[in-house]
Amino acid sequence: MNKILVANRGEIALRVMRTCKEMGIKTVAVYSDADRNALHVKYADEAVNIGPAPSNQSYLRGEKIIEVCKKLNVDGIHPGYGFLSENAEFAELVEKEGIVFIGPSADSMRVMGDKLSAKAAVKKYNIPMVPGSEGAVTDVKLGIEIAKIAGFPVLIKASAGGGGKGMRIVDKPEEFEEQMKLAISEATSAFGDGSVFVEKYVAGPRHIEIQVLGDKHGNVVHLFERECSIQRRHQKVIEEAPSSVLTEAIRMEMGRCAVDVAKACNYYGAGTVEFLLDENKNFYFLEMNTRLQVEHPVTEMITGLDLVREQINVAKGQELAFKQEDLKISGHAMEVRVYAEDPANNFLPDIGNLKTYKRPQGNGVRVDDGFEEGMDIPIYYDPMIAKLITYSATRTQAIDRMIRAIEEYDITGVQTTLGFCKYVMQHPAFRSGNFDTHFVKNHFTPENLSNFKPDEEMIAAILSAMAFEKKQVNTTSQEKQETPQVSNWKRNRIKH
Fold it and tell me: Which position among 61, 110, 291, 401 bears the catalytic label?
């Protein structure tokens, strides 16, 4: 493979291109009018404009991207995440044109891209499932019966898509009909598919995901877990690896289940199997993401692997160079997503010019970004500026290093989530490991950003965390809303 086109933008495009350069592979960037001066455009060996700023006129134009590949004699396409990364039709078309799609097969995408077909595929492997419907539910009366058997509260969730769209929590039978109709309507509008399923709502869950990697010769391994429970609007903001709550026994069982999920759809490449972990440490299969995840750097830090390099090697037909028993967890990694959002205004996106942009540096600090000082945050795409990752020997040290890095990260011109992320890092619930996906709802208000004084609580939390880490080491050795104002982003969306 001599030349790869990266069908994406921003930090993930740069991250893929850097690995390509290390492997001696030439790169091609595609860009919209809004990204003409973007860093990934400057970094690539070749760059081609594929259309106006809106993604449906540029980055989502699969036929145009393939046309560029054929013109420039490209061998493979890396889709990054988002955009066309989980589009089975695009992957199929790429392969038909004789170009390698650096990702799973279209068939795997189709099976795992629909939550109902995914559940059907993994059923024979005895994967733990949340009690609920086995197929799509369209009849309200049937839905209520399923809900009663599962037990209220229940979750009505769109079969296709994600990001919290088409999702409704129902506490009482009398609320069910209205909420189901709303979920179907929202799912139809967002994904063009109104299929929903009904399942028991897991209260106070942790969101744990397992990184898997498979080759085209039937070998599949897992690369341990990532903790992704700190979320806003059902979307992740902070991730870490490993999780602070998994025992080695649960880790092994969850990893085995993730490998079986991958085998259920003949998966190859890098993928992620997501689970819910309840308060009693029972885990349930949630879904599989058939692409590289935003939070993949924390897995790279604790395993020493380059996941993009592994993706490319798999796409070239190589066998995995390691077996499950060769993989070990080393140290602890934290990642915070630096979004151009205002945490004090319900995390509404913000846009503007990066008047100041200075990255943190030092031992154990990694910044994956796609911006420089003086650049504008465009209105058309996801408002993530960067991913800030820290790594150290222990969780407490990784947290403290993250606090230092956040304090060194100097950004002016737009509101960012850095203040919120520092608040989380300092909060006793997070430091002790006693938190779940409801952290924002239970522990955060806009006033916290200015009023939070953690000094005494911090001491207790640090002592608790240190005791927990000591216990983990011993165990391992033995086992071997204020009314929001209109944001700049929203104001400009109205103008456009």
Answer: 291
The whole-angstrom separation of Cα 108 and Cα 202 is 27
| Residue-wise pLDDT tens digits, 22-33 | 999 999 999 999
Kind of pairing between the strands at 26-32 and 46-51: parallel
Contact 238, 334 (CB under 8 A): yes
Question: How large is the C-alpha radius of gyration of the chain?
Answer: 22
Reading the block at residue 56, the tokens are 């449906």
Which CATH code is given to the segment(s) 131-200? 3.30.1490.20
Q: Return the half-sphere exposure (C-beta side, CA atoms, 13 A cut-off) of residue 359.
A: 17
Q: What region does 3 belong to: left with phi over 0, alpha with psi -120 to 50, or beta? A: beta
Calculate the alpha carbon distances from 211 to 177, 193, 262, 274 in Å.
37, 28, 10, 9
Cα separation values, 228 from 208, 294, 494, Å: 6, 11, 33
Nearest to 388 by CA among 357, 366, 414, 370: 366
Q: What is the per-residue pLDDT across 360-404, written as a single tens digit (0 to 9) for each?
A: 999 999 999 999 999 999 999 999 999 999 999 999 999 999 999
Q: Considering only the top CATH level, what class is 3-102?
A: alpha beta
**The amino acid at 124:** K
Topology, domain 206-475: D-amino Acid Aminotransferase; Chain A, domain 1 (3.30.470)
Helices 88-96 and 106-113 cross at an angle (nearest 10°) of: 170
- 8-state DSSP, 173: G
Residue ranges per structural domain of the chain: 3-102, 131-200, 206-475
Instruction: Determine contact, residues 146/132, Cβ cutoff 8 Å.
Output: yes
Q: 337 an active-site residue?
A: no
Cβ contacts of 165 within 8 Å, gap of 6 or more: 158, 186, 187, 190, 191
Buried b (16+ CB within 10 A) or exposed e, 135-161: ebbeeeeebbebbeebeeebbbbbbbb
Rounded to two decimals, what is the model's pTM?
0.86
Question: 36-64 burial, b for 16+ CB within 10 Å, e for fewer?
Answer: eebbbbebbeebbebbebbbeebbbbbeb
Using an 8 Å Cβ cutoff, are 168 and 154 in contact? no
